[in-house]
Amino acid sequence: MSKQVKLTDRQQRILWATVRHYIATAEPVGSKALVEEYNLSVSPATIRNAMGALEKAGLLYQPHTSAGRVPSDSGYRIYVDQLIKPSEVLGRQVEELFTKNLNLEDGSFEALLRGAAQILTTLSGYITLITMPQNRTTHLRHLQLVQVEPGRVMLIVVTDAYETTSVLMELPPLTSEDTEPDTEIVERELQILSNFLNSQLRGRSLVELVALDWSELGREFQRYADTLRSLVSDLIRRTTKPASTQIMIRGVAEVLRQPEFSELQQIQMLMHLLEEEQDKLGPLIFELPTPEIQGVTTLPQGSRVTVRIGSENPLEPMRTCTLISATYRQGSIPVGSVGVLGPTRMVYENAIALVEAAADYLSDALTQTA
């Protein structure tokens, strides 16, 4: 998640230039290099002062006392969230390349995934990870919201297999912090909400809870929206865990040439994860786009792309890596994910565009076969 740091325009420009230079060279960045290569219109002393402030804020650090500075994970996070946009030009080029070189009619969807993985690896230079589509057949039979005590509500779901799942959640205040909720009003509103959810979702896959149009809730019920999203997120995690996730992996040899992977132990840990522990890797790559994606912020403006940078990755072998992933869908239902894994010193605007374009292409291809 983005570190809440308030940067001046000058500090933003210098952070952007520092990250760009380090991505290109893999060498610590000094003020002299920024003066020579970027039109920052300030003196080396001003740049040094700004870099010192960025270091104090935890966005840059010095690997050695006499060296220049390199971005921290927090610095990359600010760069990704605030200072760049995915390359729209590259995104369009990738979609054209997929359309030209891949054809579902010539073979199976698995063959299409293999082709897409190879193209992504060739274009990015990173490891490509694509999960095979998951078959999720659990459907909703009935749903009910029940107040169990003042301020607490339970969501009860009955599936088409007559299995029952319940999730407990705190209710938001009805009027103000000082007003005790009226039990009858709450029960009446929960019944109306239950009717709304049943009318929208009865007979549909539980995964389609993600695609529910919450804007259809009347204004007087909007205060429940965040609570309902949280309930739905918890419910999906409980009921839609695939038994195993088969992952297609390409491009390991290419990425291991990067200087970040010069230590043998680090390579061995990453290779062991990719080859022997896909059960741990799978849930990180294929995540449903709920409002609670493991505490990691997705990109703004409705993007489906998730970016995990360095220490944001929960698995130790990935702590020096960035994982960029996006779900692909069959219709409105997320069934798989495509991602790239590489060093944190990644060309983010290109990698994000590649992943998003691939997810869009695979979604279109899979939906057409339905």
Folded structure, characterized:
With 370 residues, this protein is an alpha+beta fold. The model is unreliable at 289-302 (pLDDT under 50). It is 43% helix and 17% strand. The longest helix has 22 residues, at 348-369. It contains 12 helices and 10 strands. The protein has 3 domains: 9-83, Arc Repressor Mutant, subunit A, CATH 1.10.10; 88-135 and 244-369, GAF domain (Beta-Lactamase); 140-239, Enolase-like, domain 1, CATH 3.30.390. The relative contact order is 0.14. Strand 9 and strand 10 (333-343) form a beta hairpin. The chain has a 5-stranded antiparallel beta sheet with strand order 7-3-10-9-8. Strands 4-5-6 form a 3-stranded antiparallel beta sheet. Strands 1-2 form a two-stranded antiparallel ribbon. It holds the Pfam family HrcA. Residues 110-352 form the Heat-inducible transcription repressor HrcA C-terminal domain.
Keywords:
single chain, 370 residues, alpha+beta, Arc Repressor Mutant, subunit A, Beta-Lactamase, Enolase-like, domain 1, 3 domains, five-stranded antiparallel β-sheet, 12 helices, 43% helix, globular, transcription, HrcA, WHTH_transcript_rep_HrcA_IDD, stress response, transcription regulation
- Overall pLDDT score: 82
Q: Helical element count?
A: 12
When the domains are counted, the total is 3
CATH architecture of the largest domain: 2-Layer Sandwich
| First-last Cα distance | 36 Å
Category by helix and strand content: alpha+beta
Strand order of the largest sheet: 7-3-10-9-8
Query: Can you tell me the residue ranges where pLDDT is under 50 for at least 5 consecutive residues?
Result: 289-302
Q: What Rg do the Cα atoms give?
A: 24 Å
Number of strands: 10
| Name of the CATH first level of the largest domain | Alpha Beta
Topology-level CATH name of the largest domain: Beta-Lactamase
For the sheet with most strands, the description reads: 5 strands, antiparallel
Shape: globular
Helix percentage = 40-55%
Q: Which sequence of SSEs, written as H and E, runs from N to C?
A: HHHEEHHHEEEEHHEHHHEEEH
Strand residue content: 15-25%
